[in-house]
């Protein structure tokens, strides 16, 4: 049964549990809710909760474990000899899954009857053709082993699905019944329900931890696998990035240094654009501008932060690039070869970062106490002297924090560099040349056709890990500085 | 002693305070310059904003217009029977059309020679369209019908001015130099006009060989299903997590750890969430690739920190007196939170949620990794399939178009950005209105 319907049925059972639980509790109090320990609705909620939570929890866990279990069993069916040269068990397994899906599709469409799908022993060409007819992408001839495995896979999935449906429904009904039986007038329904809700609240708060664990685990496992296929020393110290997707193995040079260089260079250009503009804008807004101008200019600048990065990417590629090319290109100064360059991406990213710098710096400059300014004015300093010699030094740690936050955003930014910076990894100082970044390479390595077992695809996880660690370090450091500074005046 | 008390001649102010001396002038000039830098910075920022908007509007608005050729056409019963009886049916329809077109143009006083291939290049397979129409509406035979036929993308661009005679180096299969003359003649005869391009709003993405027919409709639907997943998951989870952290959590290492985690997650680059989605949802859990469900799950994880942070702020803004009053009349802590604090914080929570959703709507990078690009989209058949069938999302579709070489796709990409920004503006306006409407000072 599809999960969607199963969920609806479980919810329906629980709703019935709610009504019955509430009614039973009221009946036990002779219809007078004052005789109950808790409000009637809590008795209903108790039954509802005891039905829904375990049932859906079981379903969730089952859905997670089932593919692992089945994969494990099926992969034992496939002899090592069957795994062809340059392939691996993962590829064969995905072939098996595709075939199993195809069989299911074919049965759904009525092209094959269920019996044939279960025990087709002869005529493999026929099966392949029939699966193609069913709209399944079958790349090559299905071998006997794969078909056997697919049949077993499909049978096991079906059994497992059936078992899951039964188990979930039993749990739902049992939970509802249990909650209903508890519905006596002396039962402390509210306390039970509140405990349950509390558990749910804690679970929700833990999602953040689970996400972090998920990120770290998914990065670490794949990174370890990558380093088992490709030497770590080359990844970190090789000065060349030249992946080969031909599958020859070992022919790729996957050095991260050119990518890191591109990332840092583009981020630097972006910061050179964003920091002066953002900082001066923040100073003007917080020190000079009247409330009216502030009320207009600040939100307008903040619009820049709300625009999706894909827009900046397109702006870089189609507006900034051609303008730069007409000035610095062959018809102009002759320094620039193509539209995609460090400068193109850097400028677009700089525009995006202006509000990050300006808003945060604005807050921090505003937090500098007026008494410090008054002291400076009392000594005869002009406004700009006060700002330069009193306000900015006092706000400096916070401003540095803001710039670091902007830098970590620049390093992690993807769409602008994918569209604006080019794909060539090179170590060069020329800002008019195309370079590429860590994020752009993650995208290109993972959107190709390569499978997840090749170092060319797995390198993306190692790149992601590096990126994650760098930005995390920058963020933690920046937040630390911003927080530490803010406490001084509070 | 008296000497020391006397001010030496040289130290006495030579000018009064009303007259600036050189140093004061210099200081005042510095002051003015500093101010000017500030104004210049703000103006530069606003200039960039304007340039961005101007680029989007000027490049994107043409995507909403489509050149059509409107030809009055009459089909008699005999013609119909003859065409249906022939071997090459659509070719005969095309012949009828060409006759009709040249008649119309001659009536307008325009003389120009053209053949079937030219019509093919300018208007596509006219014969097939005509035949399909008359087979559907046999009662229309014998009546005059003004057919609006979409012009090919090159004609479209020529009329919009983005494709000129100079751009066509040599005649190719898709366009010949003499086609320009034909189009000019048609324009002279008043047969060509620009209409609103509904197909762009409702259509689906096409292959690279049909840039004119590509529309954004299917990806809007993909985005919609994705946002549904994000809303259904991130709002309850985010609010529950904030309630726990803000109202119930004891100050211990566990809750500290959660808080630090949330602050960190808010700053993790979005592409890392894409890697997480790829590894966990697709590699590990075998959820269908390119499905809005997976996109929604990834974006949920990304949006949660934003929602939690804003929800906590609005929970914090509810004064303690409300909680105390609720507890005072005998409510439990849980009741005071759910019956009193939460409703009062609801507008703030909604505002934060809408802003979080708007961010998620514009996010592209994680979608690239879970495969929501790179295929021809179509509308899902049913509600459940809307979550599970491969689809695209608006920003991913824009990226996809931007990566294609044909200039018409570029125009479509800018047009898609206008659609995306319209959604974002709507969402943000709702958020602002909510904030204004429920703003309250305690």
Automatic annotation (TrEMBL), chain A:
Keyword Transport tagged: yes
Matches recorded under InterPro entries: MetI-like (IPR000515), MetI-like_sf (IPR035906), Phosphate_PstC (IPR011864), PstC_N (IPR022182)
Subcellular location: Cell inner membrane; Cell membrane
SUPFAM superfamilies hit by this protein: MetI-like
Superkingdom of the source species: Bacteria
PROSITE patterns, per database record: ABC_TM1
Annotated keywords: Cell inner membrane, Cell membrane, Membrane, Phosphate transport, Transmembrane, Transmembrane helix, Transport
GO biological process: phosphate ion transport
Keyword Ribonucleoprotein listed: no
An example Gene Ontology molecular-function term: phosphate transmembrane transporter activity
Cellular component annotations (GO), alphabetically ordered: plasma membrane
Topology with respect to the bilayer: Multi-pass membrane protein
Ranges of residues in domain ABC transmembrane type-1: 260-478
Residue ranges of the TM segments: 51-70, 162-181, 196-220, 264-285, 306-329, 341-360, 390-411, 457-482
Similarity comment: family membership: Belongs to the binding-protein-dependent transport system permease family. CysTW subfamily.
Function recorded in the entry: Part of the binding-protein-dependent transport system for phosphate; probably responsible for the translocation of the substrate across the membrane.
Name used for this protein in its record: Phosphate transport system permease protein
From TrEMBL, chain B:
This protein's record includes keyword Transmembrane: yes
Species this protein is from: Tateyamaria omphalii
Keyword Lipid biosynthesis: no
Protein topology in the membrane: Multi-pass membrane protein
Domain of life the protein comes from: Bacteria
UniProt record similarity statement: Belongs to the binding-protein-dependent transport system permease family. CysTW subfamily.
GO BP annotations, alphabetical order: phosphate ion transmembrane transport
A molecular function (GO) term: phosphate transmembrane transporter activity
The protein, known as: Phosphate transport system permease protein PstA
Keywords: Cell membrane, Membrane, Transmembrane, Transmembrane helix, Transport
Transmembrane segments: 34-57, 224-245, 265-285, 291-309, 341-362, 413-434
PROSITE patterns, alphabetized: ABC_TM1
CC terms in the record's Gene Ontology section: plasma membrane
Region: Disordered, residue numbers: 1-24
One Pfam entry name: BPD_transp_1
UniProt subcellular location: Cell inner membrane; Cell membrane
Domain ABC transmembrane type-1: 220-435
């Amino acid at each position: 049964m599809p999960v969607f319907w199963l969920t609806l049925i479980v919810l329906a059972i629980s709703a019935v549990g709610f009504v019955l639980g509430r009614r039973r509790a009221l009946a036990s109090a002779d219809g007078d809710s004052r005789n109950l320990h808790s409000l009637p609705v809590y008795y209903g909620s108790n039954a509802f909760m005891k039905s829904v939570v375990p049932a859906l929890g079981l379903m969730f866990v089952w859905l997670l474990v089932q593919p692992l279990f089945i994969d494990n069993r099926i992969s034992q069916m496939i002899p090592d000899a069957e795994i062809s040269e340059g392939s691996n068990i993962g590829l064969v397994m995905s072939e098996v899954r595709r075939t199993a899906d195809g069989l299911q599709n074919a049965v759904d469409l009525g092209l094959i009857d269920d019996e044939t799908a279960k025990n087709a022993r002869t005529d493999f060409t026929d099966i392949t053709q029939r699966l193609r007819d069913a709209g399944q992408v079958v790349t090559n001839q299905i071998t006997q082993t794969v078909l056997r495995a697919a049949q077993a896979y499909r049978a096991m999935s079906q059994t497992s699905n059936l078992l899951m449906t039964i188990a979930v429904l039993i749990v739902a009904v049992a939970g509802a019944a249990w909650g209903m039986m508890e519905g006596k007038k002396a039962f402390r329904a509210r306390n039970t329900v509140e405990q349950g809700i509390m558990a749910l609240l804690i679970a929700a708060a833990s999602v953040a931890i689970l996400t972090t664990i998920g990120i770290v685990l998914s990065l670490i496992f794949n990174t370890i696998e990558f380093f088992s296929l490709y030497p770590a020393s080359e990844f970190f110290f090789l000065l060349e990035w030249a992946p080969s997707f031909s599958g020859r193995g070992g022919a790729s040079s996957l050095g991260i240094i050119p990518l890191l260089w591109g990332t840092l260079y583009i981020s630097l250009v972006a910061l050179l654009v964003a920091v002066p503009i953002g900082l001066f804008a923040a100073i003007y807004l917080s020190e000079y501008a009247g409330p009216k101008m502030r009320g207009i200019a600040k939100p307008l600048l903040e619009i820049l932060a709300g625009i999706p990065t894909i827009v900046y990417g397109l702006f870089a590629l189609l507006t900034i690039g051609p303008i730069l090319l007409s000035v610095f290109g062959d018809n102009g100064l002759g320094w620039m070869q193509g539209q995609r360059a460090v400068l193109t991406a850097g400028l677009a990213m700089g525009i995006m970062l202006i509000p990050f710098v300006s808003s945060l710096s604005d807050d921090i400059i505003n937090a500098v106490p007026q008494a410090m300014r008054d002291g400076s004015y009392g000594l005869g300093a002009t406004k700009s002297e006060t700002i330069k010699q009193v306000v900015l030094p006092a706000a400096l740690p916070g401003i540095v924090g803001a710039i670091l936050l902007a830098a970590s955003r620049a390093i992690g930014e993807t769409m602008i560099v994918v569209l604006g910076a080019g794909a060539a990894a090179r170590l060069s100082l020329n800002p008019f040349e195309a370079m590429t970044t860590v994020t752009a390479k993650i995208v290109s390595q993972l959107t190709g056709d390569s499978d997840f077992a090749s170092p060319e695809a797995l390198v993306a996880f190692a790149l992601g890990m590096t990126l994650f660690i760098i930005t995390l370090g920058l963020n933690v450091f920046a937040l630390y500085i911003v927080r530490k500074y803010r406490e001084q005046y509070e | 002693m008296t000497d020391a008390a006397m001010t030496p001649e040289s130290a006495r102010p030579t000018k009064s305070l009303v007259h600036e001396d050189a140093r004061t002038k210099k200081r005042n000039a510095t002051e003015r310059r500093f101010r000017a830098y500030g104004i210049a910075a703000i103006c530069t920022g606003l200039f960039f904003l304007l340039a961005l908007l101007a680029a989007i509007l000027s490049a994107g608005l043409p995507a909403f217009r489509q050149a059509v050729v409107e030809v009055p056409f009459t089909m008699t019963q005999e013609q119909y029977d003859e065409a249906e009886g022939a071997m090459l049916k659509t070719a005969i329809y095309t012949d009828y059309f060409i006759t009709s077109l040249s008649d119309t143009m001659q009536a307008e006083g325009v003389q120009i020679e053209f053949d079937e291939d030219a019509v093919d290049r300018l208007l596509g397979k006219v014969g097939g369209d005509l035949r399909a129409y008359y087979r559907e509406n046999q009662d229309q035979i014998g009546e005059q019908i003004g057919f609006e036929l979409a012009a090919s993308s090159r004609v479209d661009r020529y009329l919009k001015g983005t494709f000129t005679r100079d751009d066509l180096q040599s005649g190719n299969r898709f366009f010949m130099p003499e086609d320009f003359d034909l189009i000019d003649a048609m324009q002279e005869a008043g047969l060509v006009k620009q209409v609103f391009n509904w197909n762009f709003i409702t259509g689906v993405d096409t292959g690279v060989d049909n840039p004119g027919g590509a529309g954004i409709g299917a990806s809007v639907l993909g985005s919609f299903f994705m946002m549904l997943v994000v809303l259904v998951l991130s709002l309850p989870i985010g609010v529950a997590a904030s309630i726990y952290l803000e109202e119930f959590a004891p100050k211990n290492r566990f809750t500290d750890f959660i808080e630090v985690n949330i602050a960190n997650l808010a700053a993790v680059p979005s592409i890392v969430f894409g890697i997480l989605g790829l590894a966990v949802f697709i590699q590990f859990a075998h959820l269908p690739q390119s499905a809005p469900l997976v996109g929604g799950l990834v974006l949920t994880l990304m949006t949660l920190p934003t929602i939690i942070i804003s929800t906590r702020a609005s929970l914090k803004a509810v004064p303690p007196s409300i909680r105390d009053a609720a507890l005072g009349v005998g409510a439990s802590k849980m009741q005071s939170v759910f019956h009193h604090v939460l409703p009062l914080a609801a507008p703030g929570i909604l505002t934060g949620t809408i802003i979080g959703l708007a961010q998620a709507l514009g996010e592209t990078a994680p979608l690239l990794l879970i495969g929501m690009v790179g295929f021809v989209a179509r509308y899902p058949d049913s509600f459940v399939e809307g979550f599970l069938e491969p689809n695209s999302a608006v920003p991913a579709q824009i990226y996809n178009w931007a990566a294609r070489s044909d200039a018409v796709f570029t125009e479509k990409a800018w047009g898609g950005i206008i659609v995306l920004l319209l959604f974002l503006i709507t969402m943000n306006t709702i958020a602002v209105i909510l904030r204004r409407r429920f703003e309250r000072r305690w």
